[in-house]
Write a structure and sequence with these properties.
The complex is a heterodimer. Chain A has two domains: 67 residues, Orthogonal Bundle (Arc Repressor Mutant, subunit A), CATH 1.10.10; 30 residues. Chain A is elongated and about 70 Å long. Chain A is an all-alpha fold. Chain A is built from four helices and no strands. By secondary structure, chain B is an all-alpha fold. Chain B has two domains: 83 residues, Orthogonal Bundle (Rna Polymerase Sigma Factor, Chain: A); 102 residues, Orthogonal Bundle (Arc Repressor Mutant, subunit A), CATH 1.10.10. Chain B is elongated, with a radius of gyration of 19 Å. The two termini of chain B are 35 Å apart. Classes of the chains: A mainly alpha, B mainly alpha. Chains A and B meet through helix 1, helix 3 and helix 4 of A and helix 2, helix 3, helix 5, helix 6 and helix 8 of B.
C-alpha cells in the first residue's frame, strides 16, 4: 500500500490511533467517505496495533453471532402453547360466526 | 439466519401446526426478550410483552404478505407492543454517552497507542475457549445500555442488516452506527480484560 504521508493529503490530516479506534465501525459498515477510507487504510498499513484492534473487533462480532438462543423454560413453553391454543379457539369461533 | 425456514414454518403455522409455533418462539425468544427489556422495567413484564407480540403475529398472520422478512415484521410488532407497555422513554444517542470508546490513558499525547491492545486472538483458535468467550460476550451484551443492547442484539446476534435494524427501531443510520460502535467496543474491552486475567 502506498504511504500517503507527505503526499497531497499531507501529514496534518493523517489519522492517529486515537481517531482510528473511533472509526472502526464506520469502516466496517462501509460508511466512510472514499477519502476517509484511504486515510484509515493508510494508517492500518503502518500500524500493527490498530490492525490488531480491527481484527479484535471482527472477532468480537463473530463471537456475538456464535450465541445460540436461550432455551425456553418449561413454564414459558407452556405459556406460549397456551397463547397459541387461545388464538386458535378465538380463530375458529370467528370462522363459525362468519 | 435461515429466513427460508421461517417461511416454511409460517406455512406450517397457517396450516395449524402447533409445533411450528414452538420452533419459531424458541428461535427468536432471546432476541425478543432482550429487545423488550429495553422498554419495560422488569423481566416479568418483558415476558408478557413477548407473549403479546406473538399473539399479534398469530392474529396478523393472514395479512402478512412476506414482502418484508418475517423477522423484521416480528421485531417491529415487538417494539410497538413494548413501547405501549413501556415506561422507559426512547432516547436517541445521549450526548453524555459520547465519550471515547477506548480509555484515553492508553494513548500518548500524540494520539498513538502507548498501551496497545493485548494479543488474544490466537487463543480463540481453541474451540472450547471460543465457546467460553461467546458465553462471556452474551453476558456482556445483557449489561450494555439498553439502546446499545438492542442494536448489538439485532445486528450481531440475530444478523439483521443495518437497514432492517433502522426500520425496526426507527432510528437513523448514523444513530445505528454510533450505538453499534459503542456496544461492540465495550464487548471487545470485556474480552481483552477477560483474556488478561491470570489463568
Amino acid at each position: 500500500m502506498i504511504r500517503l504521508r507527505g503526499l497531497r493529503i499531507g501529514r496534518r490530516r493523517d489519522l492517529v490511533c486515537r481517531q482510528v479506534v473511533e472509526l472502526v465501525t464506520d469502516y466496517l459498515e462501509g460508511a466512510l467517505s472514499p477519502a476517509q477510507q484511504r486515510r484509515f487504510e493508510a494508517h492500518l498499513a503502518g500500524c500493527p496495533h490498530c490492525t490488531e484492534y480491527l481484527a479484535q473487533m471482527r472477532a468480537t462480532i463473530s463471537l456475538s453471532g456464535m450465541l445460540t438462543p436461550d432455551d425456553l423454560t418449561p413454564q414459558m413453553r407452556a405459556e406460549f402453547i397456551e397463547v397459541y391454543r387461545r388464538w386458535q379457539a378465538d380463530d375458529s369461533q370467528r370462522d363459525e360466526s362468519d | 439466519m435461515a429466513t427460508d425456514r421461517d417461511t416454511d414454518l409460517l406455512d406450517r403455522l397457517r396450516a395449524g401446526d402447533e409445533q411450528a409455533f414452538g420452533i419459531l418462539v424458541s428461535r427468536y425468544h432471546t432476541a425478543l426478550l432482550a429487545l423488550a427489556s429495553g422498554y419495560v422495567p422488569s423481566r416479568a413484564v418483558a415476558e408478557e410483552v413477548v407473549q403479546d407480540a406473538w399473539l399479534g403475529v398469530l392474529r396478523g398472520l393472514g395479512n402478512f404478505e412476506g414482502r418484508s422478512s418475517f423477522r423484521t415484521w416480528l421485531f417491529r410488532i415487538l417494539v410497538n407492543r413494548a413501547r405501549s407497555a413501556g415506561t422507559l422513554e426512547r432516547r436517541s444517542v445521549a450526548v453524555e454517552d459520547m465519550e471515547p470508546v477506548v480509555d484515553q490513558s492508553r494513548f500518548d499525547a500524540g494520539g498513538q497507542w502507548c498501551a496497545p491492545p493485548e494479543l488474544w486472538l490466537e487463543q480463540l483458535d481453541d474451540q472450547a475457549m471460543a465457546a467460553t468467550m461467546a458465553v462471556r460476550v452474551r453476558l456482556a451484551i445483557g449489561e450494555l445500555p439498553a439502546r446499545q443492547r438492542e442494536v448489538v442484539t439485532l445486528r450481531d446476534v440475530e444478523g439483521l442488516t443495518s437497514e432492517e435494524v433502522c426500520g425496526v427501531l426507527e432510528i437513523s443510520a448514523a444513530n445505528q452506527r454510533v450505538l453499534l460502535h459503542r456496544g461492540r467496543s465495550k464487548l471487545r474491552q470485556v474480552l481483552e480484560t477477560e483474556f488478561g486475567r491470570p489463568g
